[in-house]
Amino acid sequence: MASSKIEWTESTWNPVTGCTKISSGCLNCYAERMAKRLRAMGQPNYANGFEVTLHPHVLEYPLNLKKSQVIFVNSMSDLFHEDVSLDFIRRIFDVMYRANWHTFQILTKRADRLAELAPLLNWPDNVWMGVTVENADCEFRIDSLRDVPSAVRFLSMEPLLSAVENMNLEDIDWVIVGGESGPGSRPIEKKWVLNILKQCCDANVPFFFKQWGGVNKKKNGRLLDGRFYDEMPKLSSMFTA
């Protein structure tokens, strides 16, 4: 477990590390850069670099954290990667069920496998499920998410790489938007962000603007037309960004 600087969560928990690229949003993966750095530093959980690796020894960490937290699950991987077995995913869900004083946020780009496995999992009310929609080509992931029996269903539109217009936000509870940051970051356009903000307003879906991104993301900030957008799902009562 580690505290997080990600604006929409509080802590991270990585019972799985490592991933493989499947879409354009993966090109400049921050987790891959971080994993290589941690391996070079001798961090034992990253001895395999960015290869998909299971870490059973960290499974029960949330149970040892008695103060309630909002926890991003697998910030350094994708829980629904094909190399993560259904059995191990079920073990993670069991811990989340038992650690019912925490709120767990899961994010995947593998919406097809999510849809396939969702009926085989026990979905406690403290688990939020999200998919990444970085451009219009990934909009199909929203349909896969819609039928998942999660208390909160959310979209992470980061890094936002194109306009994504006329989304069907039915049964979607939250939308996060952000630009890409770090080396080689691709630009985000304000008109894309404003269009998504309008779609959220029209559908009465909470909107969270994370960052403009760029090489110097701190300098570019996260103000949109002079204000911060820190809206959270209506079911959230324990966390204020």
Offer a few descriptive terms:
single chain, 241 residues, alpha/beta, 8-stranded mixed β-sheet, two-stranded antiparallel ribbon, disordered C terminus
Describe this protein's structure.
This protein has 241 residues and is α/β, with parallel strands linked by helices. It has one domain (2-220): TIM Barrel (Alpha-Beta Barrel). Helix content is 25%, strand content 17%. The protein is built from 7 helices and 10 strands. The protein has helices at 30-40, 61-64, 86-98, 111-117, 140-146, 190-203, 217-220, and strands at residues 2-3, 11-13, 16-17, 53-54, 70-73, 103-108, 127-132, 152-157, 174-178, 207-211. The strands form 2 sheets. The protein has an 8-stranded mixed beta sheet with strand order 1-2-5-6-7-8-9-10. A two-stranded antiparallel sheet has the order 3-4. The model is unreliable at 236-241 (pLDDT under 50).
Helix content, binned percent? 10-25%
Number of helices, where a helix is a run of at least 4 consecutive DSSP H or I residues: 7
Largest sheet: 8 strands, mixed
In angstroms, what is the radius of gyration? 17 Å
How would you describe the shape?
A: globular
Question: How much is the average pLDDT?
Answer: 95
* Helix and strand sequence: EEEHEHEHEHEHEEHEH
